[in-house]
Amino acid sequence: MKMELIYVKFDIGKIKFDANGLVPLIVQDADTSVVLSLFYANKDAVNRMLETNYVWRYSRKLGRIIKKGEQSRNYQKVISLNLDCDSDAILVKAIPEGPACHTGEYSCFDQQKPILNQLIEVIKDRKLNPKKGSYTSTIVNDQKAIIAKLREESEEFIEAGEVKEKKEIIWEAADLLFFMLVYLENRNIKFSDVLEELNRRRNPKKN
After folding, report:
1. Which of 23-37, 62-76, 153-167 has the lowest mean pLDDT?
2. How many Å apart are CA 167 and CA 104, to the nearest integer?
3. Which has the closest alpha carbon to 140: 125, 118, 157, 155?
């Protein structure tokens, strides 16, 4: 999915709320697929999510609905809402605008952001805030330099394969992948768009 677009396709009438009028709300990072939080929502909270495209939940402690990030400003922008097979739990895919957990951690389940996404953030930072002595900073805004580097790394990757040394292949594959991410950042292309294209190719319904 393209992260610039908000996609919500959901039928609130199918939700099977429990005896207290609540339903579990599982929030997943739309970009990394990591589970961020588990909340509960009532009908009002679900309606607010559909209206605002942000995660809302029901606080059993406060006895009212609240917007995720109401105090911390670590909001979660909704991309999609989907019911499970029994219609008694909701999966929310969202873009987190800060840590999900009140402890400041990325996820409430002690999960770390995948290494690929951490690398992308570093590359983005080197692009916006060039760091002295950083090779990435020197080429991320120089398209010709990145293309030349990609050619070099592609050749080295192929050569490593010809030698058939597993360790060498892994090393060169890591280099090639890294500089591919640098090139995508230079072209303002999100890696999630690449993943979505791969998903489209394996899903006949989208072809």
Report:
1. 153-167
2. 37
3. 125
Structure tokens, 23? 């339903």
Q: Which strand (E) or helix (H) includes residue 144? A: helix 143-163
Question: Tens of pLDDT along 117-149?
Answer: 899 999 999 999 999 999 999 999 999 999 999
The vertex-42 CA angle with 40 and 44, nearest 5°, equals 130
The token pair that represents 60 in the structure block: 């059993």
Taking residues 46-68, report their average pLDDT.
95
Residues 127 and 53: their CA atoms lie apart, in Å, by 30
Matching residue, tokens 């293309």: 147
Count CB-CB contacts under 10 A for residue 207.
7
Q: What whole-number distance in Å separates Cα of residue 173 and Cα of residue 165?
A: 12
- Domain annotation for the chain: domains and CATH numbers: 12-96 (3.10.20.810), 115-206 (1.10.287.1080)
**Strand 23-29 relative to strand 90-96, pairing:** parallel
**Rounded Cα gap, residues 35 and 96, in angstroms:** 11
- Take residue 137 and report the two structure tokens written for it: 């900073």
